[in-house]
Structure formats: structure tokens, C-alpha cells
Design brief:
The complex is a heterodimer of chains A (66) and B (240). Chain A has 66 residues and is an all-alpha fold. Chain A is built from 2 helices and no strands. Chain B has 7 helices and no strands. In chain B, α1 packs antiparallel against α7 (195-239), α3 runs antiparallel to α7 and α4 runs antiparallel to α6. The N and C termini of chain B lie far apart (41 Å). The mean pLDDT of chain B is 90. The longest helix of chain B is centred in the last third of the chain and has 45 residues, at 195-239. Chain B has 240 residues and is an all-alpha fold. Classes of the chains: A mainly alpha (66), B mainly alpha (240). The A-B interface holds A 10-11, 13, 16-17, 19-21, 23-24, 27-28, 31-32, 35-36, 38-39, 42-43, 45-46, 49-50, 53, 58-62, 64-66 and B 6-8, 42, 47-49, 51-52, 55-56, 59, 83-84, 86-87, 94-95, 98, 101-102, 105-106, 109-110, 112-113, 211, 215, 218-219, 221-229, 231-232, 234-236, 238-239.
Chain lengths: 66, 240
């Protein structure tokens, strides 16, 4: 038990060390989650749009560009 | 190589590679965190606070590397009008902003116990803050115009102008008298870091890089789908 507490204490600097790791985890997870949800939303919307316009894999007048 | 620069083919390839990227990123993070938190020793001067380095330094490296990616994408869009250039710059910019924010936050959390202050206006810290503002400006410009191509052009010009900040960040600790320490790892010299500390640092850097590549693929796919949606809507509007 005291070993775990000593590990969490980080030599009296636990707040700084764990704060840094928590900040990194939060930023990486939030950015990853937002990006993934954006992808699913865009792909879902695109599928619905393509279903509304059957027979067209590419919109009228659109060239082969992003 | 050039055939992968076709947006449709790139999206296909990215969709297939994304699960592998997620797995590799998770694996590297688990290994990196195990090494950083359990295997590496405390520093003889900084004690346990040295463990902040394992999340701070790779974030700072990636902040600069991603900016190079954004500038290269912008240059390829501006000069060669390559359709993927804009898409990559647009997709990478928020990731770079997040890496820069991470470098600033973790640097501040490291600075307080070591320097006794959260922040100083020294050349390294200030130039990294400027990098963060460059990213924010780039993102703002991308969304500032009704016509996306105009926003992309303005953002690309800003990205290219801002590249001058990268050597300032890199050499600020040599050119000026800063509180921030000079580089401990150089391409030309042997690292001044013990292997027990260097190994977790490099594995964490690999994890950040894998995260970036994986997320870039996800965001590029989103951008390509959004561009297709815009074209659909424009075609529908033109039909009345």
C-alpha cells in the first residue's frame, strides 16, 4: 500500500506529474473522439445523400478533386 | 507513390490502414507509459518530475513536425494545386494545435517545480506560444470565408509565412539566454541523455507519431467526405 502511495506521490510532485499526464490524455482523447465522430457523421450524411440521388457516385459537375 | 496522391485512392487506403494505426498507437502508448512510469529512474537533479519530459518533449517535437506537414501541404496546394495538399493541411492543423497546447501545458507543469514559475516570456516559450497562435490563425482562416477555396488560400499563405518561426523555436535556446534548457538530443552528436531515459522518450515519441498519422488519416477521410457533400449540395442547388 505504501509503495503505491509513494508511486502516486512522485517525490512530492504528484500533482505536477499526474497533472501533465492527465492533460495529455484529455487532449488526445477528446481530439481523437471528436475526429472519429466527425468522420462517422460526414460518412453517414454522404451515404444518405447518395441514397437520395441513386445512380450517382459523383455529383453533377464535380470534377475528380477534393 | 504518386498514385496514392489520388484523393479517392488515398481515402480507400486510409480506411484500410486506420485500424492498424489505432492498434500500433495503443501498443506504443502502453509500452511508452510502462517505460516512462515504471522502468525509467528518477533524475538525480529533477527527481520524479523528469517523468513529465516523456509527455512534454514528444509533444513539442510533434508540434513543429506537424507544422512542416501543414506548410508542405499548403505549398503543394498553392504551387501545384494538388487537391490533397489543402485537405492534408486542413486535417493536420487542429492536430498540430493540440500538440502545441500539450507542449505548453506540460511545460508549464514542469516549469513550476523546476524553475519556480508557471511561465516566463523567454524566447523558447514565447516562440512556441506564437506557433500555437499560428495554428489558431490557420484554423480560423480556413473557416472565415463562405467559399472554402478562398479560406484555404489565405490559410496556406499564413502557413507558409509562419514557417520562419520553426528555426526560431529550434535555435532560440542557442541564440538567446533562455531559462529553457538547450537541446539534449542532436542529429550530429551523441545524446546527452542516459539510455534508461532516452528509451522511454523515443518510444513515447513513436506513440505520438503513430497517433498523428492515424488521426490524420481519419481527418483526411472526413475532409474528403465533406468536400463530396459540398459538391453534392452545390449540384442540387444548381438544379433548383
Amino acid at each position: 500500500m505504501s509503495g503505491i502511495l509513494r508511486f502516486l506521490e512522485m517525490g512530492g510532485h504528484g500533482g505536477f506529474v499526474w497533472g501533465a499526464y492527465a492533460a495529455v490524455a484529455l487532449v488526445l482523447l477528446v481530439l481523437g473522439l471528436i475526429s472519429w465522430l466527425d468522420l462517422k457523421r460526414s460518412e453517414g450524411e454522404l451515404k444518405r445523400m447518395e441514397a437520395r440521388l441513386p445512380g450517382r457516385s459523383r455529383p453533377v459537375g464535380a470534377r475528380n478533386r477534393a | 507513390m504518386h498514385r496514392f496522391a489520388n484523393p479517392a485512392r488515398f481515402a480507400q487506403l486510409a480506411a484500410a490502414a486506420t485500424p492498424w494505426g489505432v492498434a500500433l498507437t495503443a501498443l506504443l502508448f502502453v509500452a511508452g507509459l510502462a517505460l516512462a512510469l515504471f522502468a525509467s529512474p528518477p533524475d538525480y537533479q529533477q527527481g520524479e518530475t523528469v517523468r513529465i519530459m516523456y509527455v512534454h518533449v514528444p509533444a513539442a517535437w510533434m508540434a513543429m513536425f506537424v507544422y512542416v506537414v501543414v506548410a508542405a501541404g499548403s505549398a503543394s496546394a498553392l504551387v501545384w494545386r494538388h487537391p490533397l495538399g489543402d485537405v492534408i493541411a486542413r486535417a493536420a492543423s487542429p492536430i498540430g494545435a493540440c500538440f502545441t497546447l500539450m507542449a505548453l501545458l506540460t511545460g508549464s507543469l514542469w516549469g513550476k517545480p523546476i524553475w519556480g514559475t508557471w511561465w516566463v516570456w523567454d524566447a523558447r516559450l514565447t516562440s512556441v506560444l506564437v506557433l500555437f497562435f499560428l495554428y489558431l490563425g490557420h484554423i480560423a482562416l480556413l473557416h472565415a470565408f463562405d467559399e472554402p477555396s478562398r479560406g484555404a488560400r489565405a490559410a496556406a499563405i499564413l502557413a507558409l509565412a509562419g514557417i520562419v518561426n520553426l528555426p526560431i523555436i529550434k535555435f532560440s535556446v542557442d541564440w538567446w539566454n533562455t531559462l529553457h534548457q538547450p537541446a539534449s538530443i542532436s542529429r550530429l552528436e551523441r545524446p546527452a541523455i542516459d539510455p534508461s531515459i532516452l528509451a522511454p522518450l523515443l518510444v513515447m515519441a513513436g506513440a505520438y507519431f503513430a497517433y498523428f498519422v492515424t488521426l490524420l488519416m481519419v481527418r483526411v477521410r472526413t475532409e474528403l467526405a465533406s468536400a463530396k457533400l459540398r459538391a453534392f449540395r452545390a449540384a442540387l442547388a444548381a438544379q433548383g
